[in-house]
């Protein structure tokens, strides 16, 4: 396929204008990232359930009538990557760490996967409670000592991005059998995964697979073509992050 996918920086108050320009230029679709996922959602003419539930959109496209369609593939990306890794959610005890946009983007899918227990943890408890309210989830602060470690811990905080590396999660959350998934990715092991390794967690995965899977789902929405993600993950890991 011959196509062009490029990075553009858009001014904070210039999202609507940028979308109008893309549409006029005949662009098929657009991915948007932080901090404009919420605004992209508000600008949509046709909002898909995944974006409505996350109150944020990362994948947009234009139809022949010029309407903006908005979907969110982040939750799908996480679920697809957990499946690729052989991590089962159904019946598992799962901890989601964080209550910002990244957590909100995946919470609907996590609940739908029917874990036996899903706990939302956040430094600011009120934020977790607000996010969890519609699903009636258990909310805790990360410093709480837990009687039992989780099967799966997912980091959806911004810890590991930039200089922010301090992990306040109580060590009791993680045992050697706990699968640890960090939505953050980058060169080398992330801050959260290093923390998990120091606590003996053998199964550690960063968010590169989620990044690729959400992009593959966006690609499917734009082009109707499903992409096999493992070779792409390998390529990005070796060639761009190696
Ligand atoms: P995003 O949209 O990427 O999720 P955000 O809305 O700023 O970004 O949310 C960042 C998340 O990381 C929040 O859950 C934040 O916790 P608070 O709500 O208590 O601020 C969490 N976070 C960031 N740095 C953290 C740290 N050092 N320790 C614990 N949690 C942290």
Structure description:
The chain is an alpha/beta fold and 242 residues long. It folds into two domains: 1-72, Leucine Dehydrogenase, chain A, domain 1 (Rossmann fold); 75-208, NAD(P)-binding Rossmann-like Domain (Rossmann fold). It contains nine helices and ten strands. Strands 7-6-5-8-9-10 form a six-stranded parallel sheet, with helices on both faces. It has a four-stranded mixed sheet with strand order 1-3-4-2, with helices on both faces. α4 (74-84) packs across α5, α4 packs across α8 (208-223) and α8 packs across α9. It is globular. The two termini are 27 Å apart.
Describe how the helices and strands are arranged.
Layout: H1 15-24, E1 29-31, H2 37-42, E2 46-47, H3 49-54, E3 59-62, E4 68-71, H4 74-84, E5 93-97, H5 101-112, E6 117-121, H6 125-132, E7 138-140, E8 152-155, E9 179-182, H7 191-198, E10 203-205, H8 208-223, H9 229-240
Parallel strand pairs: 2-4, 5-6, 5-8, 6-7, 8-9, 9-10
Antiparallel strand pairs: 1-3, 3-4
Helix pairs in contact: 4-5, 4-8, 8-9
The protein binds 2'-monophosphoadenosine-5'-diphosphate (ATR).
2'-monophosphoadenosine-5'-diphosphate binds at residues 34, 98-103, 122-124, 127, 157-159, 164, 166, 168.
Task: List bound small molecules.
Answer: 2'-monophosphoadenosine-5'-diphosphate
CATH topology-level name of the largest domain = Rossmann fold
CATH homologous superfamily caption of the largest domain: NAD(P)-binding Rossmann-like Domain
**Approximate strand percentage:** 15-25%
Mean pLDDT: 95
Helix content: 25-40%
Tally of helical runs: 9
């Amino acid at each position: 396929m011959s196509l062009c996918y490029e990075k553009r920086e858009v001014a904070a108050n210039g999202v609507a204008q940028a979308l109008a320009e893309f549409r006029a230029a005949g662009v098929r679709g657009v991915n948007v990232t932080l901090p404009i996922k919420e605004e992209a959602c508000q600008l949509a003419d046709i909002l898909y359930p995944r974006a409505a539930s996350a109150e944020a959109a990362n994948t947009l496209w234009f139809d022949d009538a010029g309407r903006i369609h908005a979907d969110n593939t982040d939750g799908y990306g996480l679920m697809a990557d957990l499946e690729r890794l052989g991590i089962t959610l159904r019946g598992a005890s799962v901890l989601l760490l964080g209550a910002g946009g990244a957590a909100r983007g995946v919470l609907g899918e996590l609940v739908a996967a029917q874990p036996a227990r899903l706990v939302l943890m956040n430094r600011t408890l009120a934020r977790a409670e607000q996010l969890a309210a519609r699903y009636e989830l258990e909310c805790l602060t990360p410093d709480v000592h837990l009687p039992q470690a989780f099967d799966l811990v997912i980091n959806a905080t911004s810890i590991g991005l930039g200089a922010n590396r301090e992990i306040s999660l109580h060590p009791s959350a993680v045992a050697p059998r706990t699968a640890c998934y960090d939505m953050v990715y980058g060169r080398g092991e992330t801050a959260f995964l290093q923390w998990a390794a120091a606590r003996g967690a053998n199964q550690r995965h960063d968010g590169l697979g989620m990044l690729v899977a959400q992009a593959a789902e966006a690609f499917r929405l734009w082009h109707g073509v499903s992409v096999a993600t493992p070779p792409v993950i390998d390529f990005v890991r070796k060639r761009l992050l190696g």
